[in-house]
Amino acid sequence: MLVARVMILNKYADIEQALDYFLPVGMQAPPGSIVQVPLGSRLVEGVVFAHPEVPEVPELKEVLSVSERRLPLEFIDLACWLAVRAGCSIATALSAMLPPAGSGLSPVRWQIDEQAATAISLTEKQQLVADLVRQQSPMQKTEISRALGISLAPINSLIAKGVLLPTKGKAPAQDWNFQQVAELTSDQARVIAVIRAESEGFQKGGTFVLHGVTGSGKTEVYIRLTREVLAAGRQVLVLVPEIALTAQLVARFRAAFGTGVSVFHSGLSSSRRASEWDRISRGDAAIVIGTRSAVYAPLDNLGLVVMDEEHELAYKQEETPRYHARDVALYRARQHGAVVVMGSATPSLETYSRALSGQYRLLEMPKRVHSLHPVVAEIVDMRRELQLGNRGMLSRSLTQALADTLARNEQALLFLNRRGLAPTVLCRNCGFRYTCPNCSTSLTLHGHGLLRCHHCGETARISGVCPECGSKYLRELGVGTQKLEAHLASRFPGVHLCRIDRDTAGTALDKELHLYNFYQQESGILLGTQMIAKGLDFPKVTLVGIVLADLSLAMSDFRAAERTFQLVTQAGGRTGRAQLPGRVIIQTYQPEHYSLQFALAGDYLGFYRHEMGVRNKAGLPPFSALTRILISAKEQPQLMKQVEQITALLRQENYNLLFSGPPPLERLKGRYRWHLLLRHSLANSPWEKVERLRRSIRGDKYTRVIIDNNPYNFM
Prior knowledge:
The chain has 21 helices and 30 strands.
């Protein structure tokens, strides 16, 4: 009798150990197979890990069925490694690797029939829906409901009346018009030659850090390396941090390699993801381009992994399993003996320090491909603007630069790391502030008088008077993308603006359409949050304005200065990328901060040395490793009881407890929160010890405990 050792998937039960079942005669279920088995009174799914030889088979339940899809055999080893690395069970680690279900349908998107809209009388809510869809068409029903904070009833009513009509959720044919590069620069040719030689023609692995300034031609290096890897009969995985970056990159790769390119990311419908997964698994696509989740694409002969914009925080998953795509990519490359190339103009301190120590191979590309006109950068002190009577969001210098840019029929990009109309609304009479009832945070003002919590989705409306004292003196504090858009529309009437944030571009298709339209010069100004600050190439953009560069310095995070340097450098790198000169204007209330000064000078090495000194003195990564234990409960006594138990366990095991207390977001989605920060020496890998700690923590029905190794989010 053949026995199958099955790891039950964690959506059914988070069981630490695999369970044994017997396989009926004639049923084939090799390791990696996804099977249906009984568990108690339920039917559940699991993954076959092995076929153990059991000398005396006890009374076992049988495997009932086997799925057509199968995980690659190497994923079993990968799941065991990831469980330790990410501080979770093996079943939880497996959840990130499973093939898509394939049952999803492409969502219906709706647009306005203007003739029908003017022919009938609309209610107030129906008019809000019509106005919103008119501005942001096409939209899904759930997007409309979420944006306005209303039910589906008025939306369905407009559909029934023929005011909203369905439109196909497919992007029109796009021609990004990328020209094939005929000749490499000396930097590009040198980098490719080094990687080719040290990997012995891509027959053995190696890890390379490609530190190239913005516009130095890193993408062309990726394409040339891909061509050589394919010629060697192997496969290529290209990772990007944002879905918004895939369209341009896919266009360039398809121009070079045709249809053998698969796109894989969470923005696709589940049916499309399933189709792409099957295509990759069959070997019909030798190149996979995608975001963080694409690191689990079922490639069976991986020869090259490219990680573009290696420094980006989006590569770290903030839901369980909490993995960093860089770590998984490196492990998968070791499994295959593949080459890894991590590219960035602003590498993370962890990666760059490993390159300088010799753990990785450092390759530099210090020159732009188009270096006819150097980019001119300047800092504007917004404190001085205020002293001179300018209380607006834009400095006089940036306003004039925008006018000059538009007059030359060129384009501008404005970056603001905050969406919404304003961060909060305050009563000037009594000090009342609209706050979320579920979270320790202010509600953010959006259009149509809607307030929304960006953490739990809670919504409210401004009534026109203060709910606390009845005063009508309510004031919007701060600046958001919607407020800036309104200011620009009044200052530059007739100029078409394109705003990209989570409110206007909730789906991958939305982002792709917005970016493509801007590339086609349908808009003069592109306004957005951090998704537009990296990796995009618009030849007609000659001005980049960073509206409030020091917003990220206010983060409760030891990486705040690093993040600010990266954002400012990357945003500035979107201009002057073709034959036209570029200009960058950085607005700030802290012009003397070292992160901004080094970014202004384009001095990565100077910033690296300064920040490494700060980190070394504080004993923070990359000079140590951290683990965050986040505990939450609906009631504070339940929370503190679990905190005390875990703290006692940490003292017993002699952990270095760096911090214990409530995080900045003390309450989230109705749950009170507490976090413990552990610091580990780099002398020995700490993750096995943390795994033993995880297994020792006694959970209960009242509290949730999350372990995050190498955390990036401290909120």
